User: Fold these one by one.
Assistant:
Number 1:
Amino acid sequence: MKTRIERIQIDTLGGVQIIDITNQVQELLTKSDLKEGLVTVFVPGSTATVTTIEYEPGLIADMEKALDRIAPKNGHYEHDQRWHDGNGHSHVRAAFLKPSVAIPFSNKTLMLGTWQQLVFIELDVRARNRTIVVHLMGD
C-alpha cells in the first residue's frame, strides 16, 4: 500500500463560504500513481469543515439557513466572552460538520454519487488562507 499527502490552498472571504473542491481533489488523484484506495480530505482548524453535498445554488442557500438555525451568529457564546473574537458560532458550526471526510476511489476516480460533490466550508468571521490536506492511500 502506498500513501501520498498533498495540499490545496484556498483564500476565503470570511462568513459562510461553500467552495466545491471536487475537481481539485480528483486532479490530485489523477496525477498520483494510485488506482484503487481511499482519500481522506482534512482541514486543520476549528472554524472550517469539509463535507459532501449537491453543489447547487438552492442547497447552498439551504445550508446557510440551516447553519443559522444550528448556531445563530447573534447568539450568546461563552467562547466570545472569553476571547472577544466574535466567532463562537463558527466553532459550534464546525464541530457539528467535522473537519474531514473519507472517499473511496477506483480506477483513479472518486466514488461519489451522481449529484454529490466534495466541498470546503469556511465558517470563520474573517478572511483566511486555508490549507486542505489530501491524504491518498491505496495501490
Number 2:
Amino acid sequence: MMRLLKTLTVCFLAAIVAFSGITAFAAAETIIINGTAAEIPPEMGTIQERDDRTFVPVRFILEYLGCNVSYIDDSRTAVIQSISSTYLIQEGNSILFILPNQYTETEEKLMDTAAFIESTVLDGVEYGRMYVPIRFLAEAIGYDVGWDGATQTVTLTMAK
C-alpha cells in the first residue's frame, strides 16, 4: 500500500511539472507587409516580445505603412498621421486615441498591453524608441494580421 502511494505521488508530481511547466512564447523573427519582408534597420530598433505580444518600433513600422510619425517629448506621445486619421499613443498608456481627419468624433481603443519606450545608445548618443503591439496597431489602421508559428512570421496585408 505504501509503495502504491509513493508511486502515485511521484506520478502526480511529474504530471504537475509536465503540465504546469513554463509555456514558451515564440518570438517573431520576420514581418511581411503586403508580400515583402520588412527589415528593421538596427538603428531603428528590433522586434521585441512582451506580455506574449510582438512589439515593433512605432516609427519604423508605421512609416513603412505610409504614415507620418512625430513625437511629443513632454507627454511621451507618438502622433501618427495616415490618410484618413490621426492616432495618438502614449508611453505606459493602453489606450489608442483615433482622431478622424474630419475631426468628427474621437474614438478610443483599449489595448490589452501598453506601449513602452526603450533607450538605445548609438555612437554615444542616447535615443528612445517607442514600441507598440503590432497586431493591435496594424488592425486599427486597416491591416489584416496573420501569424505563422512554424516560421515565427507576422504577416500584414491591407484589408479589403
Number 3:
Amino acid sequence: MLTVTAVDEVLLSDANLDGIADFLDISPFISLLSSGTFLDQADIDRNGEVNLLDIYPFIGIMSGQ
C-alpha cells in the first residue's frame, strides 16, 4: 500500500513567510541568523541549520542567480 502525504512547498529565502522571496526577507533573515532560530525557508543550503553558511546562497537568491 502506498501512502502519500501532502507537504507545503518551501520557498527558500522567504524569511518573512509572505510567500514571496524579495528584499523584505533580508531583515527577518538577519534576525534568524542572530537569534539561532530555525526556519526551513532560511536554511538555504539545506543542512538543517540556519547559520553563516546560508548567507551567500541567500544573497544569490536575492540577486536572481
